Amino acid sequence: MLRARSACLFSGNVILKVYKLTMADRPGSTWHGERGEEWSSVQGLESILLSIQSLLSNNPYENEPGYDKAQTAEDNECKKCYVEKIRHENLRIAVIEPLESSLGILPDRRATVVAEQPSEDDDEDQLQNDDKPGIEQFIDFRKRRFLWYYESYIQMINTAETETSRKRKFRRMPFESQGNTMDGHFDYPELRRRLALLKERIICETQNWPFEGLGIKKQELSIASNLQCQYAQIVEDFKRQKNFAVDLNLVDANPFLWAFTYFGRPMSHLDGGIFKFKIYISPRFPDEQPRVFVETSLFHVRVSKEGVLCYFPRRTDEMRYHIEAIVAALEEESPPYDPRTTVNPGATKLFWGSPEDRKNYNRALRRSVERSAEWVSVYPLDHHIRKILT
């Protein structure tokens, strides 16, 4: 049970499944709770999560029964090996394998298939019956978070590769026994390959949404007209508020692909910048949430190196809340620390580092703001945007 707890860092539903398996099916593999520590019918999901959180540790070896004070030379060596294999297996089991399953990538790792896309007839049957396509819980969440944290996964692999050799077998711990072991071997190059394939598939899936959407629009299904109305309302609100920091358009009149241009407000850290985004909206919105990509190069704590924007809407079912959250993510100059937003590890390290680090972050951000004007000169703005500027 305790070895799996670190998986909570990547996938909550994985940890809960392992927790249930260990407690219910393998009672001999853990210790009996003292009075007051045992399961009670009044406990719920929140109390379980808090209990698991309290046991998360940089040194999970010491969480094992009887090893909380282990300090021998062998124990110290085991601690290091234990962390190494947990790190490898968390990435493989909690991050990679669930997404491979969701995307239809074959488990043998040698051949892949593209997840079958629903036909227009399927879309019509599902949407006209007011039954939204079934999206397994957490699949869309995993995909969005994967795009956010891809660079962190790659950095972790780059660091770990220097510490262990490929195909090296996992060391068995003293408390592991037959039927209760974490066996296997290290293969970070293979994990890197699988991560790259996942990123490619998720981006390909995202870029296919507008094409799916056009088919839905031709069928005059409700989701297309609803998004069209939401877009019109948002634009009208901006005009009424005289908000000239944002320009919003439908790409080729497609309600499933929005072009978003942000103009840095005067006296702000983005003053003078012009940044263009694409907002991809799924035909299964809001079950599948929009994915936002920055087209203009921007060094920012909320923008990954792949150009994926990290933001948190107050509500997920209306696009105006997404637009509001996108602007807030860009404009916030002194946000509270939130580990969920570590989508650009280099920028995050500078932003939350020393005062000198923060200065270097501000310089890098300012350079990208200045370059945004050069980017616009290479990729001219639309005519209506130029009218706003003049």
UniProtKB/TrEMBL annotation:
Name by which UniProt lists this protein: UBC core domain-containing protein
Lineage, highest ranks first: Eukaryota, Fungi, Dikarya, Ascomycota, Pezizomycotina
Pfam family, one: UQ_con
SUPFAM superfamilies noted in UniProt: UBC-like
Keyword RNA-binding: no
Superkingdom of the source species: Eukaryota
Domain UBC core: 1-95, 222-374
Keyword Aminoacyl-tRNA synthetase: no
Record keywords, A-Z: Ubl conjugation pathway
Organism for this UniProt entry: Petromyces alliaceus (Aspergillus alliaceus)
